[in-house]
Amino acid sequence: MSRADHLDVAAYALGVLDQQDTERFEEHLATCWACAAELETMVPVVGLLSGIDGETMTALEQTHTDPALLDRTLMAVRLDRRRARFRQLLATAAAVVVFGGVSGVGIAGIAGIGDERVPYAEPTLTTPVTAPPSDVPADPNDPNIGGNEQEGEQHDATDPTTGVKTTMWLTSKEYGTRIDLQLAKLPGPRTCRLVVIRKNSTTEVISTWAVPGGGYGTNSNQLPLELTASTSAGRDDIEKIQVQSIDAKGVASPLVTVADL
């Protein structure tokens, strides 16, 4: 059997032989263990070589007499494999587009890679969903803005002398009472404390804090101060709750009082 017959292995694997050559090669294959073994090893790469046409295979058969033709043939095979990788990349990009239909990602441009151009995915703008307009202006100090409703019994107070404003929420707990509060119009710098005054006239300091120079809920700092504290006193035992300012000598003076308890 001639060398050309052995080179028919690749052409046979790709299915580019005509009927006569196919029958001739199959007769040869039945008696040539070398071609049979070579054909078996080529099965995994048939998919990569399937894009090579018959002319390329003919040129491959001639490379044993023309070394320059071998180089050109190998270059053609490399180019075909590169194109196969590009096709695989295109398939991946298409899958990204399908997934992006749900997540808001779409094809927005073309990126150049060598001589090939491959689509790339970019995020697309979507129309934001907004709530219906309200005729009532929102209070930026309201903790319920944003859908997080504050737990507890609400009490509001504004001191006519100091101008300090507060909103407190009282929640009965097994351990006593939890107090959540906001403070605004509170100038600084100063030191403050939160005092619970019981119905039996006893008092309890349940929190202390420092107010910076800009204060809270002021022109310098529009954000209110938010605190949470607890007392062992039950809800029904509390007469009033007071925010006090402490001077350098430790003397306390009221800033705002919630007394409607």
From TrEMBL:
<feature type="region of interest" description="Disordered">
    <location>
        <begin position="123"/>
        <end position="163"/>
    </location>
</feature>
<keyword id="KW-0479">Metal-binding</keyword>
<dbReference type="InterPro" id="IPR041916">
    <property type="entry name" value="Anti_sigma_zinc_sf"/>
</dbReference>
<keyword id="KW-0863">Zinc-finger</keyword>
<protein>
    <submittedName>
        <fullName>Putative zinc-finger</fullName>
    </submittedName>
</protein>
<keyword id="KW-0812">Transmembrane</keyword>
<feature type="transmembrane region" description="Helical">
    <location>
        <begin position="89"/>
        <end position="113"/>
    </location>
</feature>
<keyword id="KW-1133">Transmembrane helix</keyword>
<keyword id="KW-0472">Membrane</keyword>
<keyword id="KW-0862">Zinc</keyword>
<keyword id="KW-0805">Transcription regulation</keyword>
<dbReference type="GO" id="GO:0008270">
    <property type="term" value="F:zinc ion binding"/>
</dbReference>
<keyword id="KW-0804">Transcription</keyword>
